[in-house]
């Protein structure tokens, strides 16, 4: 099939190139503005108890985390007449904005849509939970209609009105809809920066590798087609499912890196065939038969790794799977179509010429450094295996101290105004720092005098370790005591009934009752997890659903933990079967899985050492260490890094298999295979590192973490796994490398990949 594809591309080379250019332009136009259609969520597990609690809070109680939070700061006090008047005017302006479903503020209490005219007219609600301890800052929370793009459009209209000068108040804005908007803005900037840094640096590196301007531009052209196709794929996916904003940066960088990678393999093999004396057309066909087979198997392996993310229900991971698999296949198809066409249209420009010939090794000096390294390693295979494995395991040790959490506003640059506002919210309103929403579905305190039961339950929760306070329909509680509210004093209620307080109105509805519990620790600290467990276990008047950041994280973590063994097993089985078909060996796929995992464990240790503990910030760029690692990051990193590592493993195994088909000797085949593949996977790793390091300059810490960790995995793979560990293990395995029980074997040639026969000799030359 590959040969037929190559013949088609060579015979219709100009048509293929023109159609590719038109397709890239069309895909670029189709994918234009895709960032505005991407979502920033996808961390929570659908159908989990916390997700059900969140659905009840937002849909039936009009509660939960507000979309927009305004911090209105006065020079003296928010209770001053001028500040109160400005605050009431701000609330009135906001609740008249299209798309706003309700406003809650210190001065007015909850204001549903349609009640703006009477909101705050002579009101003295004074909800102390919405005022800072120094009485200089008051909160205004805004709820928006719909979600996603609709909420984003409302935020764009709302922010100018919210932040307009309104003396004596100074207003800052935060909230998850505002943070989503900021994340979109910084992601677009990061993508542009990545392209501006990666493309010129990659072109210079390709120019040095090939020595020809045309040969250097060809992989970039294939990469441009793959990236344009990626944008179109993402745009199409947004029409049928939620797609994470993080998928844009990761998959675009991955598409560029793999397109360059695959093009490099094909062009390099073409030049080898030309140097061996093959005619131009035969050289193209031979390059596609050999290197093209490597490209196809590599793309299949990377795609299988990414599709493993589909076994997780979180749409952040699912969108990474859809987009990642799409871009990998696009990169492979683009390389297999465009490179043969370009080689046929411009054979002399791509196949000959070297601008750096004077800087390279003279042709009369042998280029056998990789072969000699392999032979030295295979003279002491046990020592090399023990030392290399031990070093990688030592690098992995920090991962024992990993603490998982979720990403929050701190993935953005610390000087972003949204981040500063969120930090002021944490510092000035500790009661809102770690909310846990305890929902009692279908249970109402106004039925048959149940207000006393709710009062007793809230008092029990307020004395639990780690609880700062509790608010519900019967009042506000701290350490078992109720905290008087000004609104309740104005309109006292009869004993055994609910207070007539607007600030407490939304805690009940026909759907049931809920309680807002404030924790003392950060949402993802171990103390918060223990608090959530205590709240679930506390004696309650009805079955309990726990919501909020801590509960959402626990549910997502438990979901990932349940699915992870199945995902890893499926990925390992699929990779094993693919490599079994490719190598026709049982041992080589097992060896590939084992050594690839070693480089990943080391990079996971670096992930904790750098991004959780905050070391080496001067090297990787500024970010905010949170003391945790997002629970989804190791899963995504594993799929990305493992896929790239398999790419190099497949290249090396193919070259070793070709040499073994000629010599029948494992030692000489391994040395010859490393000599042939070493320059290729080194150049490929350098090109991939250029793209990943450009991505590592991202201002979004989540993207920086993925890029740095994957880049480190590529470095370890290139420096340790391929040149040291693989030859040592191949030498130790000997004849077992080529064992395949009871399957029919066909003869292999140098051009049809690895051959599993019986090795007649294993001596070192």
UniProtKB/TrEMBL annotation:
Which keywords annotate this record?
A: Cell membrane, Membrane, Transmembrane, Transmembrane helix
Does the entry feature the keyword ATP-binding, yes or no?
no
Q: Which domain of life is it from?
A: Bacteria
Q: Where are the transmembrane segments?
A: 243-268, 294-316, 322-343, 381-399, 564-582, 594-611, 631-653, 674-696, 702-725
Domain Membrane transport protein MMPL residues, every copy: 82-383, 503-746
Q: Which Pfam families match?
A: MMPL
GO CC terms for this protein? plasma membrane
**Major localization listed first in the record, in broad terms:** membrane
Where does the UniProt annotation locate this protein?
Answer: Cell membrane
Membrane topology designation: Multi-pass membrane protein
**Which Gene3D superfamilies would you find in this protein's record?**
Multidrug efflux transporter AcrB transmembrane domain
What family is reported? Belongs to the resistance-nodulation-cell division (RND) (TC 2.A.6) family. MmpL subfamily.
Q: What is this protein called?
A: MMPL family transporter
The source organism is Streptomyces klenkii
């Amino acid at each position: 099939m590959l040969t037929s594809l190559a013949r088609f591309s060579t015979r219709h080379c100009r048509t293929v190139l023109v159609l590719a250019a038109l397709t890239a332009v069309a895909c670029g136009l189709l994918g234009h503005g895709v960032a505005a259609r991407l979502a920033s969520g996808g961390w929570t597990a659908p159908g989990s108890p916390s997700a059900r609690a969140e659905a009840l809070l937002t849909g039936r109680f009009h509660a939960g985390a507000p979309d927009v939070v305004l911090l209105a700061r006065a020079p003296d006090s928010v209770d001053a007449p001028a500040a109160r008047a400005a605050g009431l005017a701000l609330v009135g302006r906001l609740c008249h904005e299209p798309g706003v479903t309700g406003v809650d503020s210190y001065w007015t209490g909850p204001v549903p849509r349609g009640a703006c005219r009477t909101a705050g007219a002579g009101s003295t609600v004074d909800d102390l939970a919405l005022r800072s301890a120094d009485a200089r800052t008051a909160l205004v929370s805004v709820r928006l209609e719909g979600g996603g793009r609709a909420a984003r459009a409302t935020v764009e209209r709302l922010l100018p009105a919210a932040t307009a000068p309104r003396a004596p108040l100074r207003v800052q804005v935060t909230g998850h809809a505002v943070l989503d908007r900021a994340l979109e803005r910084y992601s677009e900037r990061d993508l542009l920066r990545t392209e501006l840094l990666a493309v010129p640096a990659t072109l210079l590196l390709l120019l040095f590798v090939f020595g020809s301007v045309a040969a250097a531009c060809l992989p970039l052209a294939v990469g441009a087609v793959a990236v344009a196709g990626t944008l179109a794929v993402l745009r199409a996916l947004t029409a049928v499912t939620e797609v994470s904003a993080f998928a844009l940066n990761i998959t675009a960088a991955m598409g560029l890196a793999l397109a360059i990678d695959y093009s490099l393999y094909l062009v390099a093999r073409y030049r080898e065939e030309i140097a061996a004396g093959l005619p131009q057309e035969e050289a193209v066909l031979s390059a596609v038969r050999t290197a093209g087979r490597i490209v196809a198997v590599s793309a299949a392996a990377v795609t299988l790794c990414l599709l493993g993310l589909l076994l997780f229900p979180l749409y952040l991971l699912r969108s990474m799977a859809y987009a990642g698999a799409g871009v990998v296949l696009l990169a492979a198809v683009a390389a297999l179509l465009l490179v043969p066409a370009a080689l046929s249209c411009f054979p002399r420009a791509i196949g000959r010429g070297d601008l750096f010939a004077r800087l390279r090794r003279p042709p009369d000096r042998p280029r056998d450094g990789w072969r000699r390294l392999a032979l030295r390693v295979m003279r002491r295979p046990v020592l090399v295996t023990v030392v290399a494995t031990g070093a990688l395991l030592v690098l992995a040790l920090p991962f024992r101290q990993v603490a998982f959490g979720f990403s929050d506003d701190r993935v953005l640059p610390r000087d972003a105004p949204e981040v500063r506002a969120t930090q002021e919210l944490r510092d000035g309103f500790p009661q809102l720092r770690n909310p846990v929403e305890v929902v009692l579905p279908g249970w109402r305190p106004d039925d048959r005098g149940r207000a006393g039961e709710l009062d007793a339950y809230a008092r029990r929760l307020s004395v639990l370790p780690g609880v700062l306070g509790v608010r519900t329909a019967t009042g506000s509680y701290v350490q078992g005591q109720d905290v008087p509210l000004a609104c309740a004093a104005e309109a006292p209620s009869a004993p055994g009934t609910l207070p007539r307080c607007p600030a407490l109105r939304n805690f009940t509805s026909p759907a049931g009752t809920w309680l807002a519990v404030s924790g003392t620790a950060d949402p993802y600290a171990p103390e918060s997890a223990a608090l959530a467990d205590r709240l679930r276990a506390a004696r309650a008047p009805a079955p309990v659903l726990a919501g909020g950041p801590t509960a959402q994280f626990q549910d997502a973590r438990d979901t990932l933990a349940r699915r992870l063994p199945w995902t890893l097993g499926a990925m390992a089985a699929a990779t094993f079967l693919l490599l079994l078909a490719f190598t026709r060996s049982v041992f080589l796929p097992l060896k590939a899985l084992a050594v690839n995992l070693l480089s990943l464990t080391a990079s996971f240790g670096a992930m904790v050492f750098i991004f959780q503990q905050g070391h080496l910030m001067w090297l990787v760029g500024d970010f905010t260490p949170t003391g945790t690692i997002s629970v989804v990051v190791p899963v995504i990193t594993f799929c990305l890094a493992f896929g790239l590592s398999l790419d190099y493993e497949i290249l090396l195994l193919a070259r070793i298999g070709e040499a073994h088909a000629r010599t029948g000797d494992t030692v000489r085949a391994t040395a010859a295979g490393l000599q042939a593949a070493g320059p290729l996977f080194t150049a490929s790793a350098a090109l991939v590192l250029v793209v990943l390091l450009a991505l590592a300059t991202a201002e979004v810490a989540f993207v920086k973490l993925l890029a740095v960790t994957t880049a480190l995995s590529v470095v370890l793979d290139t420096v340790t796994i391929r040149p040291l560990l693989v030859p040592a293990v191949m030498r130790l395995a000997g004849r077992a490398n080529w064992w395949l029980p009871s399957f029919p074997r066909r003869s292999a040639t140098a051009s049809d990949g690895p051959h599993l026969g019986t090795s007649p000799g294993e001596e070192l030359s």
